[in-house]
Structures are given as C-alpha cells and as structure tokens.
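Bug #77: duplicate submission created two jobs. Keeping one. Sequence:
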Amino acid sequence: MATTDVNARVQRHRDALRMAGLRPVQIWVPDTRRPDFAQECRRQSQLVAQSDAADTGLQQFMDAALADVDGWTP
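Kept job's structure:
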C-alpha cells in the first residue's frame, strides 16, 4: 500500500472524527521503560509520605471522607 493511500485513509478517518464533534488531544506520560523510572516513583512516593505525615489534619480529613462513602457499594 502506498504511503499516500495510508495518509488519505488516515485523513478521512480524522475528518470523520472531527465531523462527529471530536478533536485530537496529545497526552505525554512518563516513560515507564526508562531505567530510572522506579527510582523516581520511589522518590516521589517518599516525599508524599513525608508530607502526609507532617499534615496532622490530613488523617482526620481522610477518615471523614471515608465515613461519607459508607453504603455506596452493594
């Protein structure tokens, strides 16, 4: 299949999506294949845990929020 055929087909598909009221969105996410990905996750998790431990009102807020959802599931 020629490249121009593929390009035309993709363009028709995109045009149809736009006609349906949709628009393209590009989302950048962390590359989980990077060698330092797990280390960075660990670092950020430790920072969040330290911040949570320093916030005395956070546990009370979380307990109140959890109590508010009692009975939401069967």
